[in-house]
Design goal:
Layout lengths: L3 H11 L3 H19 L6 E4 H10 L9 E5 L5 H11 L8 E3 L5 E3 L5 E10 L2 E10 L9 E4 L15 E4 L2 H14 L3 H10 L6 H14 L6 H10 L4 H5 L10 H11 L8 H8 L9 H10 L1
Parallel strand pairs: 2-6
Antiparallel strand pairs: 1-2, 3-5, 4-5, 5-6, 7-8
Length: 295
């Protein structure tokens, strides 16, 4: 683990608290440990931390947890035990502790995860690690290089590529998440993505498919209305962005309302899949939607 003085420099330069900056660094070490153990060969990186580390780099908010989808054929018990095992021995000056009460396999066996306590020379804290086994990736996985960060020069290893969801699938998952929960982090991530060229047909189909996979009927009108009606915890988000970045909730909401209007323009096949969310009988339709979206 790098010296505290370098973490302090990173925190000061990033205009965030040392706890947030330190977690960013620790998660990079954890990814390296999992990669060295060969576990990232069957895990697809996703979520806010993936967007931070692999897509936007220092141009976006910090993130404090790790999320993956398993694209292998392992049982959830084996997945979580392998992860716990990989973190069971000290590495890079970090040691980990995961009590049996701190990791789980969901009752439906579609996800697993752990609260990982870590310790190094100058701090002790924890982070959450979650793995979904609910669905296979909809698109071919890609390999993202870690986006450069000032602290990289002090690491004991060189940056490495990570198997990840494609950007469009990351965004499809983010839309699903934002439709199912209320988090200021999700809204921020969607607004940040609005600055990029978007493959709107593909992203809309992926959002529909992602909700269908969870047996949840995607309702774009409800999603759009929820952007403005939700009670967001803005203080949660403020700790994850530069202090000089003056958060403007109205601007974030307006950006999302304008940029994601395309979600309302459902095709007939998308409507069919939404109607099938509970019955889950149209098993081949998601692949058809993807072909239509990229065709």
């Amino acid at each position: 683990m790098i010296d505290k003085k370098f973490a302090d420099l990173f925190a000061q330069g990033s205009q965030v608290g040392i706890d947030v900056a330190e977690r960013e660094i620790v998660l990079t070490y954890v990814l390296k440990i999992l990669d060295d153990a060969g576990l990232l060969k069957t895990l697809a990186f996703k979520g806010g931390t993936c967007l931070r580390k692999c897509v936007y780099g220092k141009e976006t908010r910090f993130s404090v947890d790790l999320d993956f989808t398993s694209d292998g054929d392992k049982e959830p018990d084996d997945v979580i035990l392998e992860l716990v095992g990989a973190l069971g021995k000290p590495a890079f000056g970090l040691s980990f502790a995961i009590d049996t009460k701190d990791f789980y396999v969901a009752e439906d066996r579609m996800s697993c995860g752990a609260t990982v306590v870590y310790k190094h020379a100058w701090n002790e804290a924890n982070f959450k690690l979650d793995v979904s086994l609910r669905e296979e990736p909809s698109l071919d996985l890609t390999s993202f290089a870690l986006q450069p960060q000032p602290y990289f020069k002090y690491l004991e290893f060189k940056p490495f590529p990570i198997r990840s969801f494609q950007f469009e699938e990351l965004l499809g998952e983010k839309i699903r998440a934002a439709s199912q929960r209320v988090r200021s982090r999700d809204l921020y991530d969607l607004a940040k993505a609005a600055d990029k060229p978007l493959k709107t047909k593909l992203i809309r189909s992926l959002a529909v498919i992602k909700c269908w996979n969870a047996r949840d009927a995607f309702d774009p009108a409800r999603f759009m209305g929820k952007l403005r009606s939700s009670n967001y915890d803005w203080d949660d988000l403020r700790q994850l962005v530069r202090r000089s970045e003056k958060l403007n909730p109205e601007a974030l909401i307006s950006t999302c309302e304008k940029r994601y209007k395309f979600l309302l323009d459902l095709t007939e096949n998308e409507k069919r899949l939404i109607a099938d969310a509970k019955r889950h009988s149209l098993k081949s339709l998601p692949r058809t939607l993807l072909k239509e979206a990229v065709g």
